[in-house]
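Run log, item B.
One chain of 359 residues. Sequence copied directly from the ordering sheet:
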Amino acid sequence: PFVQVSASEFYSSEMKKTEALIQTMRKAIGVRIKETRTVLEGEVAGLDYDMVPNPYNPTQKIPESATLTLETKDDKRTFSVSGRLALQFMQEGLEAGDVIMIDKESGRISRLGKSKKAKKKFDLGDEEEVDVPLGKVEKEKEFTYVITLHVLDEANASRVGGFFSLFSPPTKEIDNEVRNAVDEQVKNWVEEGRAELLPGVLFIDETHLMDIELFTFMNRAMESEMAPIIILASNRGFSKIRGTDITAPHGIPLDLLDRLLIITTESYTPEEIKTIIEIRAAESGITLSRDAIEKLTQLGTENSLRYAIQLLAPAFEYAKLRNSGNVEVEDVERAAKIFVDVGQSSVYLKKWEEKLLLM
């Protein structure tokens, strides 16, 4: 699993910030569960209902039971079906020619499609045609599910609530006892060979917005056996750790930084800026002349890459005004005169600072 969040998302009125962080971390940890179940699979060769009057409305009839005949290329069997399952058949609209699979234990019905040899054919609204299954009607099949620890937490939390939870206000927080029980269950599944743990990736952008409490909590959570790969991204240099007066690199405590592998970044070269602009223009469907590319590369080098990329759209609009599909250098220059970058805007503010309103 891959989960991408911004650090500002941890601050919510619905739950504590540490709760939001641990839930996000557990969303990034998957569990691949393998399960062998007994199923009935085949084409519906016959389906007969035994209808009786509805006890609550005698004018209507409901199925009391049904007789279902399933066949494969190698086998054919007939089953008596309870009223509950027969009602599901009616709600699903099952009919002869449907290829279905029924979980024998739970009674869950899966409609796989329409048999290729079915008599009813439609030009519109027909279901996908599938082959008639091979082998026996009753067989064992292995199913694989991939779910996250957070989904298991929510499922177990809803069971723990019980009847009296109906009278308490709804909450999105999950008790640690529930998480510990889920962790133990998953460990047992892994030891038995029924499940496999899939540590995912948690990408936290704007890490400098996290405060000292979140950093402390994350520092401890990273030591857990069930922790995802965490990637922290920040564009800050030395800044204060939120909630303290301590200045640290990227606004991250030094003891946490010591646990991280730090990836260094470098400024783009003019050739790299040119390549990025060409790729972005191609994705946006904008055709640039050679001089326009050079001008945008110059603006990206002198100002910023984002500024150069943001000029693509207005420059393309100016090209349209000329009834041209190609962006020329004059279109870029015209857009650059109207839309300034951060540096030019700061100079403008300094120049007219006295005439601006002060807060």
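Observations after the first pass:
- Confidence is low (pLDDT under 50) at residues 163-170.
- The chain has twelve helices and 15 strands.
Flagged for discussion on Thursday.
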